[in-house]
Amino acid sequence: MLSEQAIVRLLESRGLKLRGSLTDEAPSGIIFRGSSGGLSGAQFWRLETEQGPYCLRLWPAEHPTAERLAWIHAVLQRAASAGFTLAPVPLADTAGRTFAAQQGRLCQLEPWMPGEALPVGSPSAELVADACQRLAEFHQAVQPPLQAAPVLEESPGILLRTERLASLQDPAVLAGYRHALSPRIFPAAYLLASRYLELAPQAFGGLLAQLAPARSLRVPLQPCIRDVWRDNLLVEGDRLSGLVDFGAMNLETPAADVARLLGSLALDDAALWQAGLAAYQAVRPLAAGERQLIAAFDRSLVVLGGFSWLDWIYLEQREFAEPARVLARLAELLLRLETNVLTNR
C-alpha cells in the first residue's frame, strides 16, 4: 500500500496538487479503489486534485517490465496524437518519465476516464457496435505509418495457442490437472473446474482443425490491446467512454482484439457479432485472413481459456481479491463450451 505522502509526491512531480490537505478533517482526496473490479493484480486510487480527477495505477510486481511499459505508453501517446481520446495517456514528470518505481512495483498517473463499468447482462446492439467502431479507430490510430510496407507474419497468439493445445493433448498433462483439482482449494470453483476439464478435451480435435490453417496465414502485425474485454470498458449509456488496462499490449493482428472484444460482449449471439463486425469494418475493413483468424481466436478462448484459470487456481494457488468475478468468468467459459463448441465439433 502506498503512503499518502508518496502519492502527494507523485502528484507534485507532475504539476498536480491534491484537493484539500492531508491534515484536514475532510477526506484528503485519496480514495483507494483496490483492484477496481479487475483481475490483473493491479491496484488503483482515485485522486481528487485541483486540476480534476486522476487515477493512480500500481502495477503487479510481476509485470510489465519498465521497457515494456515505456513502449505501451509510447503507443498510447501515438494514439492520442492521432486523435483517439478514449485511452488515458499517462502523465510525465518533469524529467519526461511516465512511470515511477514504488515498493518494487511500477506505477503511473493518468486521467480518470468518464463513465461506468458495463452492467451485468447482455449489452445492446448499439453499444456493441460503438465499442467495435472505437476499437477500429484505435487500431487505425496506432497502425504503422502508411508509407512503410506492411510486414506479413504469423500471428504470435495463434502460434501460442497451437503450442498450448499440443501440450494439453499429452495425457500426462491432463492427468496432472485432474490430480491438482481439489474441493479444498477454492471450493466454490470445484464443480465448474471439474466440468470444464471433463468437456474441453472433447473439443481439442475441432480446435486443431481450425488452428492448423490459421497458423499458416501471414497478416500485418501492429500494436494491439490483447485484453480488450467487457471489464476493461467504460460506458455512458450505449456509448463507449473509455478503454482501460493496456498492460497486455503487444504486436499482434487486430483480429485478436476483435475476437476478444466480441467474444466478451456478444458471447454466441450471432446478431450482436454481426452488428459488431459491421461497425468495425465501416472504419477498418477486415481482410479475408483476418476474418478467419477472428474465428480461430474466439474458439481458442472457449476451449483453452479455462486452463489458464485452472493454472492460477490449482497449480499456482493464487488468492483472488474478488472470487465472485473468477467464478463468473469460469461459468461463462463453461456455458460457451457446452452450448457452442461441443455442439459443433
UniProtKB/TrEMBL annotation:
Statement: the UniProt record of this protein carries the keyword NAD: no
Source organism superkingdom: Bacteria
One Pfam family it belongs to: APH
Gene Ontology MF terms: kinase activity
Keyword terms of this UniProt record: Kinase, Transferase
InterPro entries: Aminoglycoside_PTrfase, Kinase-like_dom_sf
Domain Aminoglycoside phosphotransferase: 36-285
Keyword Transferase attributed: yes
Name of the protein in its database record: Homoserine kinase
UniProt lineage: Bacteria, Pseudomonadati, Planctomycetota, Planctomycetia, Pirellulales
